[in-house]
Specification:
By secondary structure, this protein is mainly beta. The chain has helices spanning 41-51, 101-109; strands at residues 2-5, 11-14, 20-21, 27-29, 34-38, 55-60, 64-69, 72-78, 94-97, 119-121, 124-130, 136-142. The strands form three sheets. A six-stranded mixed β-sheet has the order 1-2-6-7-8-5, covered by helices on one side. It has a four-stranded mixed β-sheet with strand order 9-12-11-10, covered by helices on one side.
Length: 144
C-alpha cells in the first residue's frame, strides 16, 4: 500500500482489489463500509486516525473520507439538513476487536477517550465509548 494524491486533491491509498463472486461466478460485492455522519471532518479524522489508530484511506476535502482497520472501512460524511443526523445510530454501533482490553482502554484514555464500565458478555468483554459526534463504538476482547 502507498499514499497518492490525485489532481482533484483526494488522498488515496493504493490497494489490491478483492472481488467476491456468487455461486454462478458473477461478481457480487467489491467492498463494503459503515458510514458515520460527522459535524467536522478534521475533528473526525483526528479522532479515528490519531486517537484510535485507524489508517486514512481517502479524503475528498470536507465532503467524504474513509478510514480503515483490518476488515473494516468507516466512511466519514458530513451531516446535512436532509435528515442525516449525528449520533443517532438507533441500534447500530461499531465494534473494534482488541487483544487486551485494559491496556487498550488505558492507552485511549490517555488520549482523552471516556469509556462506560466494562460489560462481561459470556466470553466477551466490552467497553463502549463515543466519537466526538456521539456515534457509538465499542472495544471487544474475546477470551475464545
Amino acid at each position: 500500500m502507498g499514499l497518492a494524491e490525485r489532481p482533484d486533491g483526494a488522498i488515496m491509498v493504493e490497494e489490491t482489489e478483492v472481488k467476491y463472486r456468487n455461486h454462478t461466478g458473477s461478481p457480487v460485492l467489491r467492498e463494503g463500509n459503515v458510514t458515520v455522519m460527522v459535524s467536522d471532518m478534521n475533528s473526525a479524522i483526528q479522532f479515528y486516525v490519531e486517537k484510535l489508530g485507524l489508517t486514512l484511506k481517502a479524503r475528498y476535502s470536507d465532503q467524504f473520507a474513509q478510514v480503515v482497520a483490518p476488515g473494516l472501512t468507516i466512511a466519514l460524511h458530513p451531516a446535512d439538513r436532509q435528515g442525516r443526523r449525528l449520533g443517532k445510530a438507533e441500534g447500530l454501533s461499531i465494534g473494534l476487536r482488541v487483544d487486551n482490553l485494559e491496556r487498550t482502554m488505558k492507552d485511549l484514555e490517555g488520549k482523552g477517550l471516556k469509556f462506560s464500565p466494562v460489560v462481561e458478555d459470556g466470553p466477551v468483554r466490552l467497553a463502549s465509548f463515543n466519537d466526538p459526534d456521539g456515534n457509538p463504538l465499542y472495544l471487544a476482547e474475546s477470551r475464545w
